[in-house]
C-alpha cells in the first residue's frame, strides 16, 4: 500500500514542473518502470536496496507461516522517505509557481 505512494509523489512533483498533465503521468510511469528494470540488474548489488521497486513485494512476508517484518519495515521506510522528499519538492515548486498569469 505504501509502495505506490512513491509513484504518486513523483507524478505530483512532475505536475508542478510541467504544464502537460500527460507528461507528469507519463514521466512517473516511465521512471517507475525504469526503477523496476534497474531492480532486476544484479550487478548493482546493494544499490538495489535503495530502489522503491525492490521492496514492492515485501508484503508477501505477511502471508507466510513465519511472519517476517524486517523487509516490510525497510521497504516502508524507503518508500515513505522518497515520498516525503518528492512531496516536499512538489509543494516548494508549487508555492513558487505563478498560477495567476
From TrEMBL:
Q: Provide this UniProt record's keywords sorted from A to Z.
A: Membrane, Transmembrane, Transmembrane helix
Top-level taxon: Bacteria
User: Which residue ranges does UniProt annotate as crossing the membrane?
Assistant: 20-38, 72-91
Task: Please give the PANTHER family that the UniProt record associates with this protein.
Answer: INTEGRAL MEMBRANE PROTEIN-RELATED, MEMBRANE PROTEIN
Q: What is this protein's record name? A: ABC transporter integral membrane protein
- Organism expressing this protein natively: Streptomyces viridochromogenes (strain DSM 40736 / JCM 4977 / BCRC 1201 / Tue 494)
The lineage, from the top, is:
Bacteria, Bacillati, Actinomycetota, Actinomycetes, Kitasatosporales
Amino acid at each position: 500500500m505504501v509502495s505506490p505512494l512513491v509513484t504518486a509523489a513523483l507524478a505530483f512533483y512532475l505536475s508542478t514542473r510541467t504544464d502537460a498533465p500527460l507528461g507528469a503521468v507519463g514521466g512517473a510511469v516511465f521512471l517507475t518502470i525504469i526503477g523496476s528494470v534497474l531492480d532486476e540488474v544484479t550487478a548493482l548489488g546493494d544499490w538495489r536496496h535503495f530502489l522503491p521497486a525492490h521492496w514492492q513485494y515485501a508484503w508477501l512476508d505477511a502471508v507466510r507461516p513465519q511472519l517476517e517484518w524486517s523487509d516490510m519495515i525497510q521497504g516502508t521506510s524507503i518508500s515513505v522517505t522518497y515520498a516525503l522528499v518528492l512531496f516536499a519538492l512538489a509543494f516548494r515548486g508549487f508555492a513558487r509557481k505563478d498560477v495567476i498569469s
